[in-house]
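Sync notes, pocket subgroup
Present: LS, DG
LS reminded everyone that the earlier model was apo-only. Rerun requested with zinc ion included. Inputs:
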Amino acid sequence: MTQGVRLLIPPFINSHSHLGYAMTLGYGRKNETGTLLDAVQILREDVLPKITEEDLRSRMERIERDLFLSRILFVRTHEPLINDIAFKMLRIRSNPLVEMQVVAFPTPPLFFEDNEEKLELALKQGAEVVGMLPHHENTYEEGIRSIKIVMDLATRYDKLVDGHVDEIDDPESDFAHYMIDEAKKRKWGSKTALSHITSTHYQGASFFNLVNKLRETEVSIVVNPETNLYLQGRYANINIPRGMARVNYLLEHGVNVSLGSDNVSDVVYPLGTFDMITVMEICRTAEWNCPLKVVTENGFRTINVNPPVIKEGEKAQLVVLRHDGSSLHYMPLLVLNGRNYVINNIKPEISTVD
Ligand SMILES: [Zn+2]
C-alpha cells in the first residue's frame, strides 16, 4: 500500500449564498408547501423584519467560522435591499477569515417601492456586485427593462453582475438570453454571472443556442445543486424519478426506514461521506422531506439494537448537535461514548481517556 499523499489545492469558493438570512429557520412560520414563492413570502413577512444589525453580527461570527472550517476563503452573498439587509451586511462585514463579496440584491425585484434608488446607494456604499430578479418582475417587459438598468449601473460604477435569472419551472423564461446580449454590448461578459437558470432544464434547442452565447461572451453560470434540487420540479405532475426508494411514502405507511452511507470513496462511488447528517440532507433534498429519526432511532430498529439510555453508573452514548431552532449543524458539539469523547470548537479536537 502507498502512503497517503497530501494534496495542495486552492481554497474553496462559495459562489452563491444568502448569508444575511442563513441559519434563520426558527425566525418565521413553517413553509408548508415547500415552494419558493411561499418561502419568499415568509421571508419578507416574518424573517427579514427580525434581522437587526446585532442579530446579523452575531450570526455572521458563527457563519464565518463555519465557512472557514469548511475550507472556504472566498464567498459571494446576495443580500436583499428590503429591510436594509444589504446595508447592514456592508456595515458589519469584517473579512478576517473569509473574503466576502456583497451582491446588492433587489428582492422583491427592482421595480418594488424604492428598490431602484436603494440599489444604486448600495453600490455607492461598497457592494461589489449588482444583482437582479427579472423573472419576478410584474411583467415580461419590466423584466427586460430591469436587466438594462442593472447592466447600466454595473458599467457606470464598475461593478460585477450576478443575477438570479430564470429560477423557475417554466420553459418560456428566457431572460438569460437578454442578459447575455446586454453584457456583450457593454463588453461585460467576464464580469457577469447568471445564477440558477433552472428553466433551461425544460428547454430544447434554445438551450444550445444559449450555451454558444455563454461560451462566446465568457459569462459565467452559478449552479446551486442542493436548493434547486429541493425547490424545482414540484409542479411536475408525474412521479419524478430520483433513483431512490420512496422514503416518505414508506414512512407514512408505517415502514421502518433508515439510511446508510453505502460506498464512500471507492470504485463504486468516488465521493460519499460517513457523515449521517449530510446523508440525511441529501435524502431531504431528493425527497423534499426526511426526518432526523432515519439516521437515529430507525437505524437502531434496523440493526436490532436497543437505543442507549442515559443512566447513572451506565456507559453514556450520545451526540450533542448545535441546534438553536435555526438549524441542525454538521459539526457536533460533543460526541460521547463512555469515557471517549470528541469536542468540536474552532479547532476540532479528539480526546480519548482510558
Ligand atoms: Zn439565490
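DG: Residues 166 and 173 are 6 Å apart (CA to CA).
LS: The longest strand covers residues 328-337.
Action: DG to write up.
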